[in-house]
Amino acid sequence: MFSILRLLFSSQAMNWFRYPCLAFMMFIPSSLIGILIPRFFWKSFPTSQDIIALKTSQEELCEEARFWGGFGYYALFTMAYILAGLSGGFLTFTMAASMLLAWFCFRVSARVSGLLSVRSAMYYLIPLIPCLIYSAYFGGFLVQFLIEKMGMMGSLPPPYGFFVPDIIVAAVIGIVTGICMGPLVPICGHWLARTSILTFLLHITVLALALSSQFFPYSSEAPKRVVFQHTLVTSGVGKIMESTYDFSVVDSNSLHFVFKNSREVAKKLDLVPDLYLDTVKLSEQKNWLALFPVNFLFSNSLKFPSSSEDIVKDYQHLPSLSTFKLQALSNDGSRRVHLELDLGSLKEVWVTVLNITGPLSSWSFAENILPAPETMNNGPPSYILRLSGSGSENWRFWLEANSSETLRVEVAVLDQHLVDDAEKLKSLFPSWVDVIAYSSFISTYTF
Predict the structure, then answer these.
(1) How many Cβ atoms from other residues are within 10 Å of residue 386's Cβ?
(2) Cβ contacts of residue 76 below 8 Å, gap of 6+?
(3) CA-to-CA distance for 352 and 358, rounded, in angstroms?
(4) Would you call 206 exposed, middle or buried from its count of C-beta atoms within 10 A (0-12, 13-18, 19+)?
(5) Statement: the pTM of the whole predicted model exceeds 0.70
(6) Contact criterion met (CB below 8 Å) for 352 and 365
(7) What is the predicted pLDDT for the residue at 218?
(8) Residue 85: its pLDDT value, please?
């Protein structure tokens, strides 16, 4: 709730990405409020046991019920891990075992000092210290790892995608805070669930939310990742049909945020002074085929027109796909198409991706076994093949169709070489942006 509230008044998400301590400052106090609120409003509760018959006070029964409830919570988690065959139950098992030792020390001290004394609470706390320290270490490492991965989780569609990373980080910190504080609440909650403490935690949360909004989310050590693709759509016979600069991001801060804080790039793309992106064309997911399957992380990508003159100068031959042998027809009506892929004069080929649509029944890769079909942009199911690098000879392979229906093959070749204009545009990005830049040659064939 607090993470959503902050973003309603902020134009940028993930302010904690550069400084993870901001996430702890914002969400640990609010998590403690959530943990203590039930204890604050439910200071005592009726029990089903006869107090007179047991000669036990209401306070003693309530403390015992809270403890065994907390112990049973962690014990059930441990049992669930074991029954599921997982190996992560050591943490909840350690917490449950430590709580038993702490409960024994608490009961011994309570006979002398009373249930609600500070001394009894300290006797309960001290045996838990090793377990709590390990839980804090494990939880802190988990949150730090999660924050790092939030920078490349993908750009989810607006408007809800803007909130998702902050919600995930807030929820995980809440879970970690619950793990670290959970064993203390049954006994020490009496001392913690006070109006003054809850008010103090609320003030700290509001102050942290306001303070974090003033920090810029990125730096050269924690960069914003931007994918810059020089897209060249060719006719398959060496003619360039379209040349564009395509941009995408892999976290919740959109391209508008990037261009707003990269004025030289915006000026180069003729976006200043208004930075109005509504008229800019969207780059379809199929244009990012060369990055499959990473292209599924992209949404709301943009493309800008570019010149193809440097491409003609740098490349004498463009990639092409052609048949090198007559089609072979079988008795059952299937046909086999023999193809040859020529990568042309590309300089630093990293990968070639083929997207095959149609009645494909077999191919000459992976022991003639087809993978599960993929669906892009709600289109028909297709089969995607990745060929790594380049060789001294052209790629030769065959595709088999089980009918006379046309096979459609889209070819996307990723070349890590950039022409001069694209290289200059890349150099205009500030140091807090990590630009993944390359050229992509896209062509379509039917057989």
Answers:
(1) 12
(2) none
(3) 20
(4) middle
(5) yes
(6) no
(7) 95
(8) 83
Q: What is the dihedral angle through the alpha carbons of 378, 381, 383, 388, rounded to the nearest 10 degrees?
A: 0
Q: Which residue has the tokens 């913690």?
A: 192
| CA dist., res. 258 & res. 433, Å (int) | 8
pLDDT of residue 202: 94
Please name the residue ranges forming H helices in 281-320: 309-314
CB contact at 8 A, 333 and 447:
no
10-residue mean pLDDT profile of the chain (447 residues): values are 90 91 94 89 60 55 81 89 82 89 88 79 89 92 93 87 93 92 84 89 93 92 95 85 94 92 92 82 91 90 89 86 81 84 90 93 89 84 89 87 89 93 94 95 92
The answer to whether 423 touches 416, Cβ cutoff 8 Å, is no
For 269-284, letters b (16+ CB in 10 Å) and e give: bebeeeeebeebeebe
Bridge partners of 443, per DSSP, are 411
What 3-state DSSP class applies to 401?
Answer: strand
Measured CA to CA, the distance from residue 268 to residue 249 in angstroms comes to 19
d(CA 25, CA 189): 21
Other beta carbons less than 10 A from residue 182's beta carbon: 18
Structural contact between residues 346 and 417, judged by C-beta atoms closer than 8 angstroms:
yes
Q: 53-67 burial, b if ≥16 CB within 10 A, otherwise e? A: eeeeeeeebbbbebb
User: What would the two tokens of residue 70 be?
Assistant: 């907390």
Q: Which residue has the tokens 């003729």?
A: 270
Nearest alpha carbon to residue 26 among 158, 17, 129, 258: 17
Which strands, in side-by-side order, build the sheet including 395-401? 320-329, 335-342, 395-401, 360-363
Q: How far apart are CA 146 and CA 27, in angstroms?
A: 14
Q: Phi, psi at residue 301, to the nearest 5°? A: -75, 150
Length of the chain, please? 447
Rg (the chain; Cα; Å): 31
Angle, helix 185-192 to helix 118-125, in steps of 10 degrees:
140
In angstroms, rounded to a whole number, what is the distance separating the alpha carbons of residues 192 and 401? 71
